[in-house]
Write a structure and sequence with these properties.
There is one protein chain. With about 375 residues, this protein is of the alpha+beta class. It contains 15 helices and 11 strands. The strands form 3 sheets. Strands 1, 2, 3, 4, 5, 8 and 9 form a 7-stranded antiparallel sheet that branches. Strands 6-7 form a two-stranded antiparallel ribbon. Strands 10-11 form a two-stranded antiparallel ribbon. A hairpin with a 2-residue loop joins strand 6 and strand 7. Helix 1 packs antiparallel against helix 2 and helix 9 packs across helix 13. The chain is globular, with a radius of gyration of 19 Å.
Length: about 375
């Protein structure tokens, strides 16, 4: 049965003190309570008190997803302002120190901190997660296996975390380097079937590695409770339009891979070791770097590869009526990722506070 290819988008935002531009806890405000009153389950707390997460409804197409994520950003910006805060979409804060940030009081987060200790407390990062409806579990595994190849390209587009603890890190996605300290992260191995994946999960539960499959934090995974493939590799982009474009690209990629499987074809599988080489390049250089074309065994500029990638999913984008959303990626290639633009402001001003102000302005862009 053909999957629904529905979409769900989750974004994690920073709550900022308008005076200091540092991260500030929202827990002493009414922001979360008001958010739940207005947006119900579409807003929730995250592990650190200066992180707040939103999630769209299950959306039938990219235009529904656009309307929902735009509405969520608007509402959260207003809620932040009403509570004396500023909302920012950035995958790390330019100068905040995780040691000064409190953990949200919740039994789930207490368990994570108890298990992972300083690694958990230092995990002050902000991501974008995109769910695509794949109801058949075997199909979800097949799509996950093939989708791994494209994750470095998708990550490069989203890169938006060049700073950490007040320093220019040299990485376009330092968030990825912070998060890989967790267990069960990065690109997964391929699985021959859903039952092989289930056996893996059950073994981890049986041996007290995890209590449920949500503690598998790979860059892509079959969601343990929803009939979706969840792509978790991305930094949260600055602009909502960038989020929509990336979500549309992920959806079209899933549709393309499904179509290949349906025809008894497949996208060539490469080892995790090779794919991790491309992920490192995406993390380090973003759109400015070169990735490896493993078929040709050569390096190719990332921007060229992404243009080829857009051609690869062109037909599926038309079928899903997401061509307009995906075409924004051409503008993203011209203007640079969020990391590129943050760095440009930093080099022009020498002020990380100015970078935060720029990020806040971009968070509102186009809403």
């Amino acid at each position: 049965m053909r999957p629904s290819f529905t979409l769900g988008i989750e974004e994690e935002y920073q709550t900022i003190d308008p005076e200091t531009r540092d991260l500030k806890s929202h827990i002493a405000t009414e922001m979360l309570a008001q958010g739940k009153l207005r947006l119900e389950e579409r807003v929730k707390a995250e592990m650190h008190q200066s992180v707040i997460e939103v999630g769209t409804r299950v959306c039938r197409n990219i235009e529904e997803a656009r309307e929902d994520i735009y509405d969520l950003r608007r509402q959260m910006i207003h809620l932040a302002e009403e509570n004396g805060l500023v909302l920012v979409a950035g995958a790390t804060h330019p100068f905040a120190d995780w040691r000064h940030q409190e953990i949200y009081p919740d039994a789930r987060y207490d368990r994570v901190v108890e298990d992972l200790q300083q690694v958990a407390r230092a995990n002050l990062i902000f991501g974008l997660h995109v769910h695509v409806g794949i109801e058949d579990r075997e199909g979800a595994i097949l799509i996950m296996n093939s989708l791994r190849y494209f994750l470095p390209h998708i990550l490069a587009l989203s890169t938006n975390s060049p700073f950490w603890l007040g320093m220019e890190t040299g990485y376009k996605s330092y968030r990825a380097k912070v998060f890989e300290r967790f267990p069960r992260t990065n690109l997964p191995d391929s699985f021959s079937s859903y039952s092989e994946f289930e056996n893996y999960v059950n073994l981890l539960i049986k041996t007290n590695c995890i209590d449920n499959a949500k503690k598998i934090w790979w860059d892509v995974r079959p969601h343990p409770f929803f009939n979706t493939v969840e792509v978790r590799v991305c930094d949260i982009p600055l602009r909502a339009e960038e989020t929509v474009a990336i979500a549309a690209l992920i959806q079209a990629t899933a549709a393309k891979l499904w179509k290949l499987h349906e025809r008894n074809l497949d996208f060539r599988q490469y080892s995790r070791a090779l794919l991790m080489e491309n992920k490192f390049r995406a993390v380090r250089y973003g759109l400015a770097g070169k990735l490896i074309d493993f078929g040709k065994e050569i390096e190719v500029p990332e921007t060229e590869l992404i243009r080829e990638y857009l051609e690869f999913v062109k037909e599926e984008a038309e079928e899903l009526e997401s061509t307009k959303a995906i075409n924004y990626i051409h503008q993203m290639l011209e203007q640079g990722s969020g990391a590129d633009r943050q760095l440009k402001v930093w080099r022009e001003t020498g002020s990380l506070r100015a970078v935060v102000d720029y990020m806040a302005a971009e968070t509102k862009h186009g809403l």
